[in-house]
Amino acid sequence: MHKVFFSLAFICQAFLAAGALAQAQRVGPDDGAKDNVQDMVAAHLKTCPARYARIIKRVDEADTADASFYSVPDYPWIRGNRFLASYVGHFENELELTTWLSQLRDNEGYARNIELRNAGLSDAERRETLDNLRVCAVWLSIDRVFNPDTEEAFIDATLEGARVKAADHAPISARQQKKIAQDIDRRFNSQPEKTPVTEWRVARPEGMMSPSEVFALYRDLPRDALGRIGMFHTAWNALAHHYAPVWLIHTQTQADVPGAPTIDAAGNTRINRETPTVYWHITYTRVESRAVPQINYVVFFGDDAGQPENGQVWRITLNQQGQPVVYESMRLDGTEHLWFPATAMRVREDVDPTVPQSVAGTGIAATRMLSDTHQVYRVATQATYEAADYRRYTLAPYDDLLTLETGPNRSASLFDAKGRLKGAKRTGQRNPPMRQLGSHSLAPGEPFFFDDPNLFDANFALLEPASDANMTDTSASR
């Protein structure tokens, strides 16, 4: 979800500029408007390289580069991700191409806004800078894409970042891989640890859209040329609350209480357990080759001193009706990627995804976590469990983590320029760092990234549609 907003006048200006350039390339040579527009474009384009060079230098000096998307070499006015990269070579029409191009520009504006805010630019400075860069991006992208001499090289360049794999994972032998699989199997089939369990359930704010309103929007709103749903932030927020996970966490110490990451003026990262918080984020993938949304839930835990120690991602992939297709969990360091099918599916040949438990036909009532390591070890399919304590957590946008307040008019991202969590505790040489969403290479043995849009289709094939039984509201009171 991107929350970068530009003035209405500027949006109109950008689209008019794009339309004027496209029209100028198509009118006849006797039309005087063509020369005027091209002269104007040429003059503005000359200023763009220097504008980007100054901003990039300022971001580098402030060390505030954002890893939400990957940069595209030689094209500083766009940023990509693997979902967009998957369209390259498969554009069916010009509308799909221009929508794709517009999103590449939006990615750049979103990330650049974070970088400039964390670099100390005021709201007014950022607005003016982003407006100027946006005009450059519109002209430059259309000039490259609709120019037969540059189109192919430009589009190919957007693929480079999608191929880069983070080198954080130490090599794992076949013997070690087998041991990991055995540990997961044993965990899911053994008796739970005998420590008190705390149930964590989302706190639902008053005045939020009802589930019926959200699902009506989800099903009825048109999809754009890339298959994405045009819901506003308020609707996504309500949907995220509807499906927010219930966690059953074995609790021995304060280190088993989820918290909100903070960064102080000296740059120290801590987990604040006084405000238990889970973060949500919308991404897109494909199921049966169709674009569908995913809701990602991220939870952080700190050690006894509050230093970040571990965390989990819980992800729900939805179908076209808004029903869960599959649940996934992954540790924030990219290890222990587990699948929990929510509808009937089969595993494809020549792959071996880790599926410790299926919840097809039942849905998930709660997800169990061990104390200390906070590894997922089982999911409860019925709300018949007992807990020693019942608590609520706040659900917040994942974007908040990218501009954490560090002092008056000062902010910083929780993650460094390579997407690694700042100040995280490392428990051993073989333990990769916790990472920002969009930068997770799955552990050795899996050839994919966590955000690979073909991850589901490469591993599974659906056998039947998801059932209405899976549309449970996890925020409801006990």
* Coarse morphology: globular
Order of helices and strands: HHEEHHHHHEHHEEEEEEEEEEEEEEHE
Count every helix, treating DSSP H or I runs of 4 or more residues as helices.
10
Rg computed from alpha carbons, rounded to a whole number of angstroms: 23 Å
Taken as a percent bin, the fraction of beta residues is 15-25%
What is the strand arrangement across the widest sheet? 11-10-9-8-7-15-3-4-13-14
Largest sheet: 10 strands, mixed
Structural class: alpha+beta
Helix content: 25-40%
- The poorly predicted ranges are 1-16, 18-29, 466-478
Overview in brief:
With 478 residues, the chain is an alpha+beta fold.
Task: Characterise this structure.
The protein is globular. The longest helix has 31 residues, at 32-62. The strands form 5 sheets. It has a 10-stranded mixed beta sheet with strand order 11-10-9-8-7-15-3-4-13-14. The protein contains 10 helices and 18 strands. By secondary structure, the protein is of the alpha+beta class. The model is unreliable at 1-16, 18-29 and 466-478 (pLDDT under 50). The chain has 2 domains: 8-163; 174-470, no CATH class. Helix 1 runs parallel beside helix 5 (123-145). It is 31% helix and 22% strand.
